[in-house]
Amino acid sequence: MNSRSLWLKVGDKNTSFFHNTIKIRRARNQIEKIQVDGQDVKGTEGLKRAAHKHFKNLLSAREETAEYKSFLQHTKKN
Length: 78
Fold this sequence. Notes:
By secondary structure, the protein is mostly helical.
């Protein structure tokens, strides 16, 4: 019996099979380290700071986008 068949049979009941499946999935999905500017960043706090800095920079308005203001403004058609 393959794992999918077993999952369908046992389902997500509060079983050891379910808990082991979740533990394996969490371990596989965990990010242990990332590289920022050529350096490894590890640990929960370091990863939080790196992610915060990345998305803050990504979502912040930049000066070079100011030249596109006229392009993005709504114009009425007559």
